[in-house]
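[Meeting: bench + compute handoff]

Bench side (C.D.) handed over the final construct sequence. Compute side (W.E.) agreed to return the predicted structure before the next meeting so the bench team could plan truncations. Sequence as handed over:
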Amino acid sequence: MKIITTNQNGIVTIKPTGWLDTISSPDLGKAIDEIDNADSIVLDFENVEYMSSAGLRQVLAAHKKAKSLDATFSVTNICPDVMSIFQMTNIDQKIDLKAKA
């Protein structure tokens, strides 16, 4: 999995590519752990094709990190298959999610 992290004016965007599963989710966790200051944390899922429960845990970890930094949090560009996982777990009721346009 390739992960690109950018920080522009306090908006930290993490953009993973591929499958977010047991093997690759620790890489996302590392990128989240490296955030030490942010006004907003955005996970851009434009290139995420699949997400397992391990990936879901990392999304929740990012949400928790944002709260600890008093930052806003969102997940954007979510494909329908991944969005269904958020909906089945009711996480769509707790965090800001945006489907792919």
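W.E. noted at the follow-up: The longest strand covers residues 11-20. C.D. will use this when planning the next construct.
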